[in-house]
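Give me structure tokens for this 339-residue protein.
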Amino acid sequence: MNEQQMKKKLLIPIFAAILVSVAAAVTFYCADKLLSYALSPVPPEAAEDSPLYVPAEAPSGEDGGTEEAAEASEGQDAQALSDEAYRWLKSAAAVESITSSDGVRLNAYFVENKRRGSRKYAVVMHGYRSAPRSVAIYARHFYEQGFHVLVPGQRGHGWSGGRCIDMGALSKYDAASWIVHLSRKDTDAEILLHGVSMGAATVMLATGLALPANVRCAIEDCGYDTLYREFAFRMAEEFHLPAFPILNAASLLCRQKFGFFFGEVSPLYAVARSSVPTLFIHGTADTYVPFFMLGELYGAAAAPKEKHAVEGAEHGRSVYTAPEAYWNAVDSFAARYFD
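Here you go.
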């Protein structure tokens, strides 16, 4: 082997190392951008329920934009119902606050039901980059069915504290803390959990914890089966990118910054170990959290369960697309677990 060949042979691993280093740098740069895009908290100035709220011309956030587009396509009735329910919530509720297990201040609206002797409580969780307004219609329905109602502001969404939007990784413990809070208010409390989108994932993840026996049932509406798979789906839809290696790198950065890997956020695993009876709801036209996840979650659930598919409903719109069928399914399911 001559000298020139020797030099070429020595250069090969050097170039390879440079390429690997550049690829890793680009991957982690993209991963950091993805993490910021997906999990950056909503500032208080953009949170409608925060005292620091500054109205903007157009709301930001993936769920919010999707919901508003859907409302426009369904006409003004859905928007009017949502606005009316939110006005009711704001006028009827008192604000209650607790401190989470990791020191975050959490706020919620609480509406005490005027029916004498009611021991029924509904905890209603909102979705990704959303707010109590988006679930006020559910809160009002449960109130009309005789429930006291608690509507938390999820951590990372501007009204409550939090360093990030955690997609259920930490907020499942917040849900458990609210359950303890209600149980201390009323030692005879019987509790129903309801959530939409990320709120549904939070509810499912909470049912996988060691919850007290007074949690009678849960209702999840269009929640994802695993966070990794949901993020992978959104990457393909929004950016036309494969999950590997950027999503894996983002998961590692998430663990370093916020304390959890994406793979740890698995409602699929939670419902498989849950003993809380659960109703699974999903719209067949959901392209944000894909409809097939309903089957995955329902199939994995170990507790007593039912599922309700809403034909033609987009993400988070089942209650507006087919309200009578929606509430018939919810009310008949809940009636089995409440006196």
